[in-house]
Automatic annotation (TrEMBL):
GO terms for molecular function: phosphate transmembrane transporter activity. It comes from the Eukaryota. The gene is LOC120031957. It is a multi-pass membrane protein. It comes from Salvelinus namaycush. It catalyses: phosphate(in) + H(+)(in) = phosphate(out) + H(+)(out). Belongs to the mitochondrial carrier (TC 2.A.29) family. Interacts with PPIF; the interaction is impaired by CsA. The keyword Membrane applies. This is Solute carrier family 25 member 3. GO terms for cellular component: mitochondrial inner membrane. The keyword Membrane applies. Inorganic ion transporter that transports phosphate or copper ions across the mitochondrial inner membrane into the matrix compartment. Mediates proton-coupled symport of phosphate ions necessary for mitochondrial oxidative phosphorylation of ADP to ATP. Transports copper ions probably in the form of anionic copper(I) complexes to maintain mitochondrial matrix copper pool and to supply copper for cytochrome C oxidase complex assembly. May also play a role in regulation of the mitochondrial permeability transition pore (mPTP). It is found in: Mitochondrion inner membrane.
Length: 367
């Protein structure tokens, strides 16, 4: 059967091609030539194998893409996001206070010393409950939906285009997942910021949530969802795309042996390293919106545009060092815990993507 595939510059609009080339993570654009490809027989049931319907591999507890697989991925997201964010509440508290009151909290060290002086050691744990609940729900949606959307978009693209446009697939799947994850996170994030940045307003979630509802209604919990999307969607797109491509590059250029020959422990070390690298970029990309969210949830009646104007170009970058430390560590731990959950439950863990044989033949890379 003959495959006639024009050059991608002809297939796609010029603007789209230029944008794809500008993407720092883009896959190379190939010129595919007309070749003869032998017919391949289909499986006995007449259906070709795809990502969502792979057979259970030896040693795995379920099929890749099955309902059990997606639910356990969501459970892994709960553990990885909920526990790590809760563990870093003291640093997050200081970071938020630096953003909303930079004149008082001039540095990380000053922020910790003032908090200990005014509230004692217990003051550093303010907001732990909404943090744990909110980010557990976010993790459920973030990781569970990411795996689901990655499979869904891959099936739409087909095997060859999935490989060629894999970075764009990671970006689209993570953005789609984070859209829903932030809706789940928004109410607890609003409570957390109000507890941490408004002294005397409320000491815990039981006091804060009813008080906010009485004063502003349901809107109090969702007024920050748009800035949250502005912060979290770019962050998550970078988190997943950068992680996936970094893992691919580490196994290709740094790890001295193929992934299949690495032990589970060695694979998890690669996961942690790639996670930290991704986390640094995540912090930088999402920090301005994070500053807006912190101030917006502190000041009732303000809008995102008003807060952005008030902070100015320099103000939105306050607390960046603290956020890089926090997010770098956080992202590395999240990926490590998430991958460890997959190992524990014996979930399928596909290796980094390789060029399909059919594409190699079209490109003349095989004899």
């Amino acid at each position: 059967m003959k495959y006639l595939t024009p050059v991608l510059d002809i297939m796609y609009p010029t603007t789209l091609t230029q944008l794809s080339r500008a993407n720092p993570f883009n896959a190379p654009l190939f010129s595919l030539q007309e070749i003869e490809e032998p017919k391949q027989s289909l499986p006995a049931n007449g259906q070709s194998r795809n990502l969502a319907a792979a057979a259970i591999a030896e040693g795995d507890s379920c099929e890749f893409g099955s309902r059990k697989y997606l639910l356990l991925c969501g459970f892994g997201g709960i553990i990885s996001c909920g526990t790590t964010h809760a563990a870093l509440v003291p640093l997050d508290l200081v970071k938020c206070r630096m953003q909303v009151d930079p004149d008082k909290y001039k540095s990380i060290g000053k922020g910790f010393s003032l908090t200990l002086k005014e509230d004692g050691a217990r003051g550093l744990a303010k907001g732990w409950a909404p943090t744990f609940i909110g980010y557990s729900m976010q993790g459920l949606c973030k990781f569970g939906f990411y795996e689901m959307f990655k499979i869904f978009y891959s099936d739409m693209l087909g095997e060859e285009n999935t490989y060629l446009w894999r970075t764009s697939l990671y970006l689209a799947a993570s953005a789609s997942a984070e859209f829903f994850a932030d809706i789940a996170l928004a109410p607890m994030e609003a409570c957390k910021v109000r507890i941490q940045t408004c002294p005397g307003y409320a000491n815990n979630l039981r006091q804060c949530a009813p008080k906010m509802f009485a004063e502003e209604g349901v809107w109090a919990f969702y007024k920050g969802v748009v800035p949250l999307w502005m912060r979290q969607i770019p962050y998550t797109m970078m988190k997943f795309a950068c992680f996936e491509r970094t893992v691919e590059l580490l196994y290709k250029h740094v790890v001295p042996k193929p992934r299949a020959e690495c032990t589970k422990g060695e694979q998890l070390i690669v996961t942690f390293t790639a996670g930290y690298i991704a986390g640094v970029f995540c912090a930088i990309v999402s920090h301005p919106a994070d500053s807006v969210v912190s101030v917006l949830n502190k000041e009732s009646g303000s809008t995102a545009a008003q807060v952005l104007k008030k902070l100015g170009p320099k103000g939105v970058w306050k607390g960046l060092v603290a956020r890089i430390i926090m997010i770098g560590t956080l992202t590395a731990l999240q990926w490590f815990i998430y991958d460890s959950v997959k190992v524990y439950f014996r979930l399928p863990r596909p290796p980094p993507p390789e060029m399909p044989e059919s594409l190699k033949k079209k490109l003349g890379l095989t004899e």
